[in-house]
Structure to design on (294 residues):
């Protein structure tokens, strides 16, 4: 059954995705509930849970401006185990020893900063027009090139009491980091094997887990007023300063013209009256509208 009404407030939902469903399941539910296009920022694997920001309506045009945001995860790595997917959902094979907490803590700082990381073959990486996971499932041999990612820091939180081979680690990293690949590479630095056995994203930019709405609340089919009350306005999410200009200059900006400004180079939020209009780029004292949301 299709909804006859559409949400009028655009922006972002911060959803706490449970383990066991895809990110697309969350997006499709919100598409149906709001009656407008939606899209997520940063896929969470079905195994993973936690923060999944979902853009609503024209907010989806801004995803490129969030690629460098910092993320935080709580991961569980099980040592002495390997799999084709690098996590516990794949074909598991025992192999390698289980290191102690001191050994793990000592090796974590060697991964801080910019590192080169090979993505998992079971990923959405494009290989000659095909997804890596499709090729891997078909048994096709291929190699993925390493990519640069940034690790802000990692902290060993401890060993699980009921699983002595599994350790919980807090990870702060930049966009595009594969936590499954970190499990593989940290284990390799310790001369062993490991898989990611659980993962929770606790932060993605300004979106945090304590402020997320549970997916179970969306499954109750809330009305539009409930949904609009939980939309985070687009301008509150963007990490840019406001660019306020005289009305005549804003009119020229809205019409696609370049205007002279006294502002540093960079990206700015612009408004039509009190309504958020979009983004402008300033370069060498000249501003031009970059993204229009109205």
């Amino acid at each position: 059954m299709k909804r006859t009404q559409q949400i009028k407030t655009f922006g972002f939902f911060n959803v706490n995705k449970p383990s066991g469903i895809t990110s697309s399941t969350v997006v499709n539910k919100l598409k149906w509930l709001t009656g407008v296009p939606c899209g997520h920022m940063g896929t969470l694997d079905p195994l993973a849970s936690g923060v999944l920001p979902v853009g609503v309506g024209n907010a989806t045009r801004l995803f490129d401006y969030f690629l460098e945001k910092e993320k935080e995860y709580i991961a569980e790595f099980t040592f002495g185990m390997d799999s084709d997917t690098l996590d516990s959902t794949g074909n598991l094979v025992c192999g390698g020893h289980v290191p102690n907490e001191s050994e793990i803590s000592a090796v974590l700082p060697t991964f801080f900063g910019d590192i080169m990381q090979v993505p998992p073959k079971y990923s959405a990486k494009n290989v000659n027009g095909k997804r890596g996971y499709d090729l891997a499932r078909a048994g096709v041999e291929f190699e993925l090139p390493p990519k640069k990612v940034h690790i802000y820091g990692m902290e060993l939180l401890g060993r699980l009491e009921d699983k002595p081979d599994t350790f919980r680690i807090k990870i702060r990293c930049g966009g595009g980091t594969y936590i499954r690949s970190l499990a593989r590479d940290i284990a390799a630095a310790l001369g062993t094997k490991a898989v990611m056995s659980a993962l929770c994203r606790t932060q993605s930019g300004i979106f945090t887990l304590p402020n997320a709405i549970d997916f179970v609340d969306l499954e109750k089919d809330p009305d539009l007023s409930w949904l609009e009350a939980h939309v985070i306005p687009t301008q509150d999410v963007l990490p840019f300063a406001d660019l306020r200009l005289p009305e005549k200059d804003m009119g020229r900006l809205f019409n696609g013209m370049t205007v002279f400004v006294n502002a540093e180079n960079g990206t700015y939020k612009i408004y039509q009256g009190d309504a958020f209009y979009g983004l402008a780029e300033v370069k060498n004292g000249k501003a031009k509208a970059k993204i229009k949301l109205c």
